[in-house]
Fold this sequence. Notes:
Layout: H1 3-19, H2 27-32, E1 46-50, E2 52-63, E3 69-82, E4 85-94, E5 97-102, E6 116-118, E7 121-122, E8 127-131
Antiparallel strand pairs: 1-8, 2-3, 3-4, 4-5, 5-6, 7-8
Amino acid sequence: MSEFERRQFQAQKDQFFREHPQSPLSPRQKDRFTGLNYYPYDPSLAFELSLMPYENPTEILMQTNSNVLKPFVRLGKIEFVIEGMTAQLTVYQADYGLFLPFVDANAGRETYASGRYLEPEEGVANRLWVDFNFAYNPFCAYSEHYVCPITPPENRLSLAIRAGEKIPTGAWVSAG
């Protein structure tokens, strides 16, 4: 994906947050909304990776912010290198497709404390396209009215992933 395409995607997402009836923002927040906060685009944080499938994929119940348990299947792991550090994350199957929740070392400072999400794209032969530039905050980062899975311990990283959405900032955040 090019920088231009990423900017288009972000502009469309900002428009959704500002105008759409299913936006997680309150009417007051929408009136004051100035846009989401993103890291600069970094093409080195987009990967085509092999999914290392688990021998016996198992269903787990993932905790949510509202203490409701949601079912997911642990499919396998991906491995990648950022700034010379190797990291692994578990990829899950959700009812809508692949799901990759993660918490990075900047959680609570630069990124949402409970983690961010990605939906990897499936390729051929167990290959996945994982572009951290599209990492996004769950809707519960913007409103307590949403139920969001909490990133499991196995997907908490000790390295920073400086791509995608950051913690929301601006007067609109507290206008709730």
